[in-house]
Amino acid sequence: MPQPEYDVVIIGAGPAGSTTARFTAAAGLRTLLVDKRQELGAPIQCSGAISRHALEDVGIVPDDEFIHEAIYGFAIYDQTGERHVHDYRSLKPDEYGSGPGRKPLGYVVDRRRFDRYLLTQAERAGADTWLKTEGRGYTPTDDGGCTVHLRRYNQDIDVRARLLVGADGLQSQVGKWAGLQTHIKITELAGCLQFIVDRVETEGLLEIVTGHEWAPGGYAWVFPKGHGYAEIGLGVIATMTDKPARWHLDKFMTQSFFRERFADCRILEVQGGGVPLAAPLRTQYADNLILVGDAARHVNPITGGGLHTAVAGGKIAAGFITGHLEDGMPLRDGALRAYQDVWLDALGDKMWKLYGIKTDIFHNMNIRERDEQLYATMADYFSPTSEFKKI
Amino acid sequence: MSKQQPVLFNIGWNACINCGACVAICPQEAGFVSPFDTIAVDRPCDIACLLCEQICPVDTITHVPAPAPATQNGAGVR
Fold first, then answer.
1. Phi, then psi, of A111 in degrees rounded to 5
2. Whole domain around residue A212: which residue ranges?
3. Which long-range contacts (CB under 8 A, 24 or more apart) does A365-368 make?
4. Could B54 and A238 be called an inter-chain contact, meaning their C-beta atoms sit closer than 8 Å?
5. Is the CB of residue A25 less than 8 Å from the CB of residue A7?
6. Disruptive mutation site among A246, A251, A267 for chain B (greatest number of B CBs within 10 Å)
7. How many whole angstroms separate alpha carbon A60 and alpha carbon A66?
């Protein structure tokens, strides 16, 4: 059997990989999207919040298939329960709301359905999509392309490609194949845990609770999850506590100012993950290879949000790839640095700036001052006047 | 050379939520991963930085000293 041939092979069918695939396939590139899992989106490692404009910017129509609940604003709390509310239903009542002609600010999505939906869109745009297919390595070849080594249902398959895209998440192995520096510091990876719960009321807002007392190094959250469910979670930095996230979540639920609100709650799901509160990777390309999404650490270092940055990054990557391959540009010797430059310009420079702000806060060893800074920064970040509104 | 002795990790699967944080923090160069997307538990870790134990949200990774490697003549180091 001749080796299958593609222009682009994408490893990892999360939001970044599937968005990249949708756009490269739509542009007419022969695209293969692979994922080792049998069910996308799972195990869920994400709260699922994404703004409406982030979806619309990449041509994803908000659809009941994947939306848990519409969001209309934010409530940011300090450690005592004082709060700033940015409810866009009252800030801009002509624009935001649930009534006719009004729209939500964003959504909490079901990651299983969302990821599958994005894969479907990629497939309908013309991409080949293979599940149960693991990337094992790649080898640049003399013709300027590369061979990608895959394993599908226990069978080894080599595929020819011009370009490989690593969209394999925070635990990315693809970057390591090329020897890229992907290691993240323990001080910059938040250990996160969240429960999907019943019997906790929410009000269409993303609620964010700051304070070292509840989430050292990170923050806690309460998000609406649709059908009367909510999501309660937090992330902590391991070097700022000697207890695991689970201990802190327990404490937050039973001892914080929300203890009565949570008193009757029932846990329906347990989810967790590592969330990078870090800078983007300094080098996101190698010979015949670029990285996108969590694999390139395209994650907002203040909020830990990675969905918007993943789909936006996927569109940027696909736009770059399409032009670059159509023009027959080189794929070696640093030529793909151009991708990173495009990304920095569109998104990355702002993320570096956010990283600077975040680092300044957490370098302050005075806990009271740091709590105040984080509370003020978060309250400002989600305000309608924030310069970072679009990240 | 690291002062740390190699260790063998044990994962309490009952508490593991398969979140992958241990793999994300692991500084091993490549592939210190189990088929279940956790750090490897079937071979010794020479770095023994124990960051995976620190990051685990549900505190379910522990370790024991790795069994001494076989010497050239096949006998274990005592």
1. -65, -30
2. 67-109+185-276
3. A367/A212
4. yes
5. no
6. A246
7. 11
pLDDT of A115 higher than 60: yes
Question: H or E element: which one contains A375?
Answer: helix A367-381
- What phi and psi, each to the nearest 5 degrees, are found at residue A317? -60, -45
All residues of chain B having their beta carbon less than 8 Å from the beta carbon of residue A272 are: 17, 19, 21, 57-58
Question: Rounded CA gap, A131 and A37, in Å?
Answer: 6
| pLDDT band at A387; cut points 50, 70, 90 | confident
**Do both A213 and A352 map to the same domain?**
no
Structure tokens at A14: 């999360």
Tokens encoding A256: 């914080």
- Percentage of chain A beyond pLDDT 70 is 99
How far apart are the CA of A238 and the nearest CA of chain B, in angstroms? 6
Give the ipTM of the model, two decimals please: 0.91
φ/ψ (deg, to 5) at A235: -130, 140
Q: Which of A190-199, A328-337, A362-371, A380-389 has the lowest mean pLDDT?
A: A380-389
Predicted pLDDT of residue B3: 61
Domain count, chain A: 2
* Residue keyed to tokens 């994005």: A118
Is the CB of residue B16 less than 8 Å away from at least one CB of chain A? no
- Sequence-ordered list of residues with C-beta below 8 angstroms from that of B5, at least 6 positions apart, any chain: B48, B65, B66
**A256 and A301 part of one domain:** no
DSSP assignments along A77-91, one per residue? E-TTS-EEEEEHHHH
- Cross-chain residue pair B19–A173, CB shorter than 8 Å: no
A111 token code pair:
């990651």
Rounded distance between C-alpha atoms, residue A176 and residue A166, angstroms: 10
Per-residue pLDDT at A280: 96
Residue A138: strand pairing partners: A148
Among candidates A219, A107, A195, which has minimal Cα distance to B17? A195
Q: Which among A10, A120, A128 is positioned nearest to A66, based on CA atoms?
A: A120
Q: Does domain B1-78 have CATH number 3.40.50.1100?
A: no
Q: Do B17 and A186 touch (CB under 8 A)?
A: no
- Report the alpha-carbon distance of residue A118 to residue B40 in Å, rounded: 31
Task: Give the domain ranges of chain B.
Answer: 1-78
User: CATH code at A216?
Assistant: 3.30.9.10
A91 and A147 assigned to the same domain: no
A219: left (phi over 0), alpha (psi -120 to 50) or beta: beta
Residue with tokens 């050379």: B1
